[in-house]
Specification:
Layout lengths: L27 H18 L6 H22 L7 H12 L9 E2 L2 E2 L4 H13 L6 H26 L4 H9 L2 H10 L2 H17 L3 H12 L9 H10 L2 H25 L1 H8 L19 H5 L1 H23 L11 H20 L13 H10 L4 H16 L6 H21 L13
Antiparallel strand pairs: 1-2
Length: 432
């Protein structure tokens, strides 16, 4: 019986005498056109926030290769690593009196968390002698921190992948601080960004524990504290009290062995708010005289300005976001990061001195702030370039480089206060 369309079994399709046309290019010109189309689609995807996660994975792989190349080909620069090892060696030998812990660069001036973490590194690096292993560990710290930063930016849902590319691959100084200098600031910021990831998911108590751990490595993380306090208050008094209790309690627990022996020495060394910085290392105030830089009145004025700016931030930028910071959606993520990052930025802008390693305190927050505020790409790129110039391409600092950094800070602070969250579509929220 011949097969006809009427009695053909279901599910069986007639075999066409012509095979389906292949999508592979048949001519060199078609092949070139296909490659051009593919490259163009890749380039266009860099402006699509929806594919930021894919780009972040690629960038992390490239960063691993870059860090390995830097360790292999660029000479390590000894600055504080041996001093860190000498400081924790005293602790490991049984000294718990902070007044007696010191290294080649002077007394130990970091809290207890630093002592415990770098004691672990002391053993992992053959008492600090295996610098290559230390560099590899810090490269891992950098990759882990970058992954946490990328996760925050992806959750904002408005930061395009090309911003991650700029952040990841254009900072000479940041790579140097991690894998060639081995500063403790790097460890502190890893812990902070871990806490920030918890905060944006409304995991406040666990986040406070990690935030306090970051503070225990270096006190500079406290610049985020005003913003964190504001965020906690929006979650209710119970969360605020518990969060603050965890922050304070964890500090006391970590410091207990040292507080028992000499509490005054521990507090004076670890949280010395009146510490005098050397003029020769300042990056941000080189354009003023050394006498003015060391003047106590100048320090008091900067502290007063810091308080005024925090009040202005709270009124102009944070209060309109008080409903948004209670949520975990993209608007909530943007609102929380805006509060935390602006709190830190005004503190840095008013700091009595900034050293080169302090760049890591705020480098990875700059891109969020600049791409959240309404401004042209050229302005954003210029501001990033000005800050990068001051930290990466001017050593030692000069009047010009310091002035460039100062102007960039002033412009960003003014933009934050002028625009607030109302002109940014990513964080625009109507107040209740």
């Amino acid at each position: 019986m011949p097969v006809t369309p009427a009695n053909r079994p279901r599910g069986n399709k007639p075999h066409s005498s012509k095979q389906s046309t292949s999508k592979l290019p048949r001519t060199p010109a078609a092949f070139v056109a296909l490659i051009e189309s593919y490259i163009w689609n890749v380039v266009l995807s860099m402006w699509n926030p929806k594919v930021a996660k894919r780009w972040s994975r690629l960038l992390l792989v490239l960063e691993v290769c870059l860090c390995a190349t830097i360790i292999k080909r660029v000479n390590y620069t000894e600055i504080d690593w041996q001093a860190y090892m000498q400081e924790v060696e005293g602790f490991l030998n049984g000294t718990l009196d902070y007044s007696k812990l010191e290294g080649g660069t002077g007394p130990l001036v970091y809290p207890a968390g630093f002592v415990y973490i770098f004691s672990g590194l002391y053993y992992l690096t053959d008492h600090g002698k295996d610098v290559v292993s230390a560099q590899a560990i810090f490269a891992g710290i950098y990759i882990a921190m970058l992954a946490l930063v990328f996760r925050l930016y992806i959750k904002t849902r408005h930061i395009a992948p090309y911003v991650l590319v700029i952040m990841s691959l254009t900072s000479f100084r940041i790579h140097s601080l991690f894998v060639l200098r081995l500063f403790n600031d790097c460890v502190a910021m890893l812990l902070f960004y871990g806490s920030a990831n918890l905060f944006v998911g409304n995991r406040w108590l666990t986040g406070c524990l990690l935030f306090s751990s970051a503070v225990s490595v270096k006190m500079s993380v406290l610049l985020f504290a005003p913003g964190l306090l504001f965020l906690l208050l929006q979650q209710g008094y119970r969360t605020t009290v518990l969060g603050l209790a965890i922050c304070a309690g964890w500090q006391v627990l970590l410091a207990t062995p040292f507080l028992i022996v000499n509490p005054i020495a521990y507090l004076e060394r670890s949280f010395d708010l009146g510490r005098v910085f050397l003029y020769e290392w300042t990056v941000n105030w080189r354009f003023v005289s050394e006498k003015f830089f060391l003047d106590r009145s100048f320090h008091v004025a900067l502290f007063g300005l810091h308080l005024v700016l925090l009040v202005a931030l709270c009124w102009r930028c944070w209060l309109p976001l008080r409903r948004a910071v209670r949520t975990t959606d993209a608007v909530g993520v943007n609102a929380k990061l805006m509060v935390l990052f602006t709190s830190n930025f005004v503190g840095i802008a008013c700091s009595r001195s900034m050293h080169y390693q302090f760049y890591v305190w705020y480098f990875h927050t700059l891109h969020f702030l600049l791409w959240t505020m309404p401004m042209r790409f050229v302005t954003r790129a210029l501001l990033l370039g000005m800050i990068e110039f001051a930290f990466a391409f001017s050593y030692p600092s000069t009047n010009f480089s310091s002035g460039v950094l100062f102007l960039s800070h002033v412009f960003i602070v003014a933009s934050i206060l002028r625009n607030g969250p109302s002109r940014s579509p990513s964080v625009a929220v109507n107040a209740p």
